[in-house]
Amino acid sequence: MAEGKQGGVFLPFILVTLIWSSTWIIIRDQIGSVAASWSVCYRFLLAGLAMAAFARWRGVSLRIGGAGLIYAALLGVAQFVLNFNFVYRAEHYLTSGLVAVVYAMLLIPNSILAWLIFRQPVSRAFIGGSLVAVTGIILMLVHEYHAATVRPDMVLLGAAFSLAGLMSASAANVMQGMDIARRLPMVAVLAWAMLIGAGVDAAFAWATIGPPQFEPRLGYILGIGWLGIAGSVVTFPLYFTLIQRMGAGRAAYSSVLIPVIAMLISTLAEGYRWSALAIAGALLAIAGMGIALRSKTA
């Protein structure tokens, strides 16, 4: 039985890790002539429509009741409005790989919130590993602060956006442990969460930036397609299923592997400049997350 359960999470875990590793650099390409909020809106409008079509194709009803819609709205605001608006803004100031490294800390708020809300235990080894990981990420941010081509205070602003997005994503992750999340069909909830999130994104973008903006460049259009379909419709159901099967803490193990791949992509595509400080920070971050996760797995 244990082998069957592991086999049931291995492939989704690998797919989520590989696809999300690629999304960071594509988000970077989306930042330009189109305001971030409109790009986020287009991504989740496409994702929500595709998720709704997928639900109907599988014969899943989109009727989830009033309580379900409230839950979907809260999930949509946390995950598809706050989280991604913060991420896109963070990448204005930090390289995509470094933002991915900051998001490797997702395990920490996931586990803390799971402890506060669901009383899931947190071990001393987890706390120690988390401190090592945070130290590593601080070293990488210090390197970025000294080596950045933008004003140093902009690096700090990028770090603040990353941390705000991290907490928003963690809140959405831990919401998957609620009873209502287990009672409702996930694809229907995600379809509504994405569509409601896209609506809120559009309202926020129009209020703060103005009418819709769009870039007819092929790379931008393909990027919206990849982020909306592969990076959202394929991955979010798989990831939230992993959370429900493995717990929010262990599912966040992907957040340790993703930045490794994302930093390699960033080095090739963005010319990220490594230093002894940055290398030490990356090694500490990965080692710390590994220690924390091994303690939770045990």
Overview of this structure, please?
With 298 residues, the protein is mainly α. 82% of the residues lie in helices and 0% in strands. The protein has helices spanning 2-30, 36-57, 65-90, 96-103, 107-118, 124-147, 152-175, 179-183, 186-208, 218-246, 248-251, 254-270, 276-297. Helix 1 (2-30) packs antiparallel against helix 10 and helix 3 (65-90) runs antiparallel to helix 7 (152-175). The two termini are 18 Å apart. Mean pLDDT is 83; it is low at 1-7.
Summarize the structure.
The chain is 82% helix and 0% strand. The protein has helices at residues 2-30, 36-57, 65-90, 96-103, 107-118, 124-147, 152-175, 179-183, 186-208, 218-246, 248-251, 254-270, 276-297.
Helix vs. strand class:
mainly alpha
Helix content: over 70%
End-to-end C-alpha gap:
18 Å
The biggest sheet, with number of strands, parallel, antiparallel or mixed sense and barrel status, is: none
In DSSP terms, counting alpha (H) and pi (I) runs of 4 or more, how many helices?
A: 13
- Form type: globular
**Number of E-state strands:** 0
Q: Could you name the ranges where pLDDT drops below 50 across 5 or more consecutive residues?
A: 1-7
Radius of gyration: 19 Å
What portion of the residues fall into strands of 2 or more residues?
A: under 5%
Mean pLDDT: 83
In sequence order, what are the helices and strands, one letter per element?
HHHHHHHHHHHHH
List keywords for this structure.
single chain, mainly alpha, 13 helices, 298 residues
Question: Which helices and strands occur, and which strands form pairs?
Answer:
Layout: H1 2-30, H2 36-57, H3 65-90, H4 96-103, H5 107-118, H6 124-147, H7 152-175, H8 179-183, H9 186-208, H10 218-246, H11 248-251, H12 254-270, H13 276-297
Helix pairs in contact: 1-4, 1-10, 1-12, 2-3, 2-9, 2-10, 3-7, 3-9, 4-12, 5-7, 6-7, 6-13
